[in-house]
Specification:
This protein is of the alpha+beta class and 665 residues long. It contains 18 helices and 30 strands.
Length: 665
């Protein structure tokens, strides 16, 4: 063997951070990604040279081959790319960070995005796991001598002639004893799948290609089907529910950006603060932390973003602060908004089906980003008790019915309305509306007033009460509505009053109370006043403000006998305190108890007391029963508001047994 030269590796500290072999990269496993990426660069360079007419004859089909030799503890990565001459090894290997990629781009005037490496440090990541690294290479240039380079991790190297006959390069690593995991086939396959799965060159290991190669996000959206997108999602996120919808990103100005982002179906076990988007650079996986690129309100999205214009640190392991990153984040938010607007207009039945999950993104984005709010403000919809009865005139060709699944409800039959120019979907027919439409529709009945429900179970009685009087209710029952979005809407619609259905009784729900006629000339008290006093003595709770009202209803027995109301301001303060203290606040002692004087139960209790006031300590059986029933009515009203504590529930159960025992005696 003829020794051509010996010398010291030159380190240009003015170009890079000081290179420390053990700390250049956070994870040692990154070395394989870097060496494969270098191999892809070499193959790309050979293709460029061939297109420039500098290569005689045909070039071989590109491939990268990985091999392990457990007995010798070696791992090799081979490519059939451009190769290197002796001078190029001296220049690009011996002088750390003097990357050949930069010079090659200038020579052939190619876009830097076609080459992965820019720092020239990727090769040296091999020394994190290897005690010796060898290069065996032959340049594509005619008359080139194959050369062999060897280094044990010190600044010393050895460069000799090689007997290699195939154009290309082989990097051979003799692994350290503590790094022998990289000799295991399963570990190699896992690393290729993680970092290099979508590299557009076959990576062969154990006589088979082990990378997927096709990067769907690089394809034109026009050439892809829904099944293509779904299959890709299943590949990225196995064992997950199908995504609700997706957005294909593809822009080349002012930066190059490709990607596919999916809206997942939200589940209770999904941490919405954690990112699920994989960041790639020229189809090489970088990391799965895109907090700087993705607006925080879109963090639960899943999928892939690929951009060589995103500035990375020297090890490509983290983003650097840069205005391009902020610009890309704004662009992604706009593309999401555009896609949602498109679905809202073109396939509204799909928009409704996924609104329960998508709506969380949209509302949170409106809270966090003024630009995004402007882009989506016209597509914010709410489930409503209103159902449109009229549909637009039908044209000659009938449109088949579309079934739309409302949030948790049974499937509803929804028609697509048609006009001569374009079909117009009637959202109200499906039980949904926008806030402006709600306000316009109800301006004569209750102008600038919104009645809403946040809990369909506990507030069902109140909702029914309003519905029976023809008052439209909006359902704002997601976690983001109650605590954040309703206050946000109040700022946006400052002239509008938002009232929860259980906060107060609107005058339209009340009728003239006939019980206001005087029934006891001796005390000059009305029946309504006697009922109020009856409950005051029975409950003995001075802090409870008892009111008597006559609720409108054709069937009084279907209305609530009594209701506990919390004024809007008091209720919100209580909920705010509960949130800040991370605990459930006790139900406030000061609240309103409304007794419905038209309900048959209240009339029966009144008659049971024989129209007289229950005296403290009275021992009349009917008076005692009336007293227990008053307490019972109050507890039922508290339960509807989740206001009954453990002690109250215990008393309620004991009293229930007593009442039932007396009634069955």
């Amino acid at each position: 063997m003829t020794v051509l030269e010996k010398g010291n590796i030159t380190i240009h500290t003015e170009n890079i951070f000081p290179i420390i072999k053990k700390s250049l990269y956070t994870d040692h496993e990154i070395f394989l990604r870097e060496l494969i990426s270098n191999a892809v660069d070499a193959i790309s360079k050979l293709k460029m040279a061939s297109l420039a007419g500098e290569v005689s004859g045909e070039i071989a089909e590109p491939e990268i081959v990985i091999a392990v030799d457990k007995s010798n503890k070696t791992l090799s990565i081979s490519d059939n790319g451009i190769g290197m001459t002796t001078d190029e090894i001296k220049k690009y290997i011996n002088q750390v960070a003097f990357s050949s990629a930069e010079e090659f781009i200038q020579k052939y005037q190619k876009d830097a995005n076609e080459l992965i490496g820019h720092f020239g440090l990727g090769f040296y990541s091999a020394f994190m796991v290897a005690k010796q690294v060898e290069i065996d290479t032959l340049s594509y240039k005619e008359g080139s001598q194959a050369v062999h380079w060897s280094c044990d991790g010190s600044p010393e190297f050895e460069l000799t002639e090689s007997s290699r006959t195939q154009v290309g390069t082989t990097i051979t690593l003799t692994l350290m004893d503590e790094e022998e995991e990289y000799l295991e086939p399963q570990r190699i396959r896992q690393l290729v799948k993680t970092y290099s799965d979508f590299i557009p060159v076959p990576i062969k290991f154990e006589n088979e290609s082990i990378n997927k190669q096709k990067a769907l996000w690089k394809e034109s959206a026009q050439n892809l089907t829904d099944e293509d997108y779904l299959e890709f999602y299943r590949y990225l996120h196995p064992f997950q529910e199908e995504p609700l919808l997706w957005v294909h990103l593809n822009t080349d100005y002012p930066y190059l950006l490709n990607g596919i982002l999916y809206f997942p179906k939200l589940r209770p076990d999904v941490d919405v603060s954690q990112g699920h988007i994989k960041l790639f650079c020229n189809q090489v996986f970088v990391n799965d932390h895109c907090e700087e690129i993705i607006p925080d309100f879109l963090m639960p999205l899943r999928g892939v973003i690929d951009s060589p214009d995103i500035p990375l640190n020297v090890s490509r392991s983290a983003l650097t602060n840069h205005r391009t990153v902020r610009s890309i984040a704004n662009h992604i938010a706009k593309k999401i908004a555009d896609r949602l607007n498109s679905i809202y207009t073109e396939t509204p039945e799909e928009y409704i089906k996924c609104w329960q999950d998508v709506g969380t993104f949209v509302k949170y984005g409106s809270l966090k980003d003024e630009k995004f709010k402007k882009q989506v403000e016209d597509i914010l919809i709410y489930k409503t008790t209103y159902k449109a009865e009229e549909t637009a005139p039908q044209i000659a060709t009938e449109t088949p019915e579309i079934q739309v699944e409302a949030e948790g409800d049974v499937w509803q039959d929804v028609e697509k309305e048609n006009t001569e120019n374009q079909g117009k979907f009637n959202y109200e027919k499906a039980g949904y509306t926008t806030l402006p439409d709600y306000l316009e529709r109800n301006k004569e009945r209750h102008e600038n007033r919104v009645f809403y429900c946040t809990d369909t179970q506990t507030q069902a009685t109140y909702v029914e009460l309003y519905k029976n009087q023809g008052i439209e209710i909006l359902f704002m029952d997601s976690f983001i509505d109650t605590n954040y979005f309703i206050p946000f809407l109040e700022k946006e619609y400052s002239e509008v009053k938002f009232s929860r259905v259980d906060s107060e009784l609107d005058n339209t729900l009340l009728q003239e109370d006939k019980s206001n006629e005087i029934v006891d000339p001796t005390t000059n008290k009305t029946r309504s006043e006697q009922i109020k006093e009856l409950f005051e003595i029975a409950l003995n709770k001075p802090q409870v403000n008892i009111k008597t009202e006559a609720l409108k209803s054709d069937t009084p027995q279907n209305t609530p006998a009594a209701m506990v109301l919390l004024p809007e301001a008091m209720r919100r303060f209580r909920e705010m305190m509960a949130m800040s203290q991370q605990q459930i606040m006790d139900f406030p002692e000061e609240h309103v108890l409304v007794i419905n004087t038209t309900h048959p139960l209240i009339e029966n209790i009144y008659q049971l007391s024989q129209g007289s006031i229950i005296q403290a300590g009275g021992d009349s059986p009917s008076a005692e029963m009336a007293k227990m029933l008053c307490q019972h009515v109050y507890d039922l009203a508290l339960m509807a508001q989740k206001g009954l504590d453990a002690e109250g529930m215990k008393s309620f159960v004991e009293r229930s047994n007593q009442v039932l025992t007396r009634l069955t005696k």
